[in-house]
Specification:
Layout (H helix, E strand, L loop, with lengths): L1 E6 L6 H4 L2 H8 L4 E6 L12 E2 L9 E2 L1 H14 L4 E11 L2 H7 L4 E6 L7 H7 L2 E4 L9 H12 L32 E2 L2 E2 L9 H19 L1 H6 L4 H26 L3 H6 L1
Parallel strand pairs: 1-2, 1-6, 5-6, 5-7
Antiparallel strand pairs: 3-4, 8-9
This protein binds ligand 4FV.
The site of ligand 4FV has 16 residues, from strand 5.
Length: about 260
């Protein structure tokens, strides 16, 4: 996969290319990655990439022409590349969207600065706007790094055999189960017995159940978004009947607050 990042701060990526999964993906030639200085595509002596907004108001806007030239040059190098603008107005970055982008032949990640990019550039040269969250950054560079990290780790063979993205949080639409490693006792906290049992069926069931529990309590929205597996439905049904029994009992306690009610409730 070819990845070109268009930015006025290309050196921000120098260390990014040299660490972790990104470094390994480059070394394995799974990706060809470069940060390109938008200023190189200006035609004035001061290499101006921004200007005052039409209609007045504070801040500056990125000019369309340097970006259009930079995108055209990147497309020369990677004709099938998808051009992606990092923007709060973009589609939210999700695991599914990262997986979709991992299928692209190339990415041209456009990093805005100032108040944003001239809209005519967006309409005419951008295939896809992507947001990493509902907050405003000072530039798209950090967002581009987040996207590259989420996408490159999904490329075949990038995550070594041991680790696979298949069990990722969100890969199955749920939050991940908790993880434990040595020491067996830490600060008086133990490791769940089942994980020490060697009983892989029980361990797998525990992991599924705790992933579901974590998701139910922390991100119930994720459980509504997509169809769950029969086993997950079965677990939720079991919890529902437990909850109903408790609530029913609580109802009887309230109906008959007398100590006797409490006793033989
Ligand atoms: C952003 C986000 C983001 C907006 C103006 C750059 C800044 C400045 N990008 N997800 N949230 N971008 O805040 O992707 O140009």
């Amino acid at each position: 996969m070819d990845i070109e990042v268009l930015t006025i701060f290309p050196t921000m990526f120098d260390l990014f290319w040299e660490h972790g999964i990104i470094r390994r993906a480059i070394a394995q030639a799974k990706i060809r990655a470069a940060a390109v200085d938008i200023r190189a595509y200006t035609q004035d002596r001061h290499q101006v990439t921004d200007d005052r907004p039409y209609g007045g108001g504070c801040g500056m806007v990125m000019k369309p022409e340097p970006l259009a030239r930079a995108i055209a040059a990147a497309r020369e190098r990677s004709p099938q590349a998808v051009s992606v603008l990092m923007s709060p107005q973009g589609e939210p970055l999700t695991q599914a969207r990262a997986a979709a982008l991992a299928g692209a032949r190339g990415l041209i990640l456009v990093c805005g600065r100032y108040e944003g990019v001239d809209e005519r550039l967006v309409e005419s040269r951008i295939d896809y706007a992507l947001s990493i969250g509902d907050y405003v950054l000072t530039g798209g560079e950090l967002a581009a790094m987040v996207v590259m990290d989420a996408v490159v780790r999904l490329l075949p063979g990038v995550l070594g055999g041991a680790t696979s993205a298949d069990h990722d949080s969100f890969a199955e639409g749920l939050l991940e189960h908790p993880h434990y490693t040595r020491p067996q006792a830490f600060d008086g906290y133990a490791v769940p017995e089942v994980l020490l049992s060697g009983n892989h069926q029980a361990i797998d069931h525990w992991r599924r159940e705790t992933a579901l529990m974590q998701t139910l309590f922390r991100r119930p929205d994720l459980l509504e978004e997509r169809p769950l597996e029969p086993l997950q439905i079965e677990i939720l049904e079991r919890w529902r009947s437990k909850l109903e029994r408790i609530l029913h009992q609580q109802g009887t306690h309230r109906a008959d607050p007398s100590p006797r009610g409490r006793q033989d409730g």
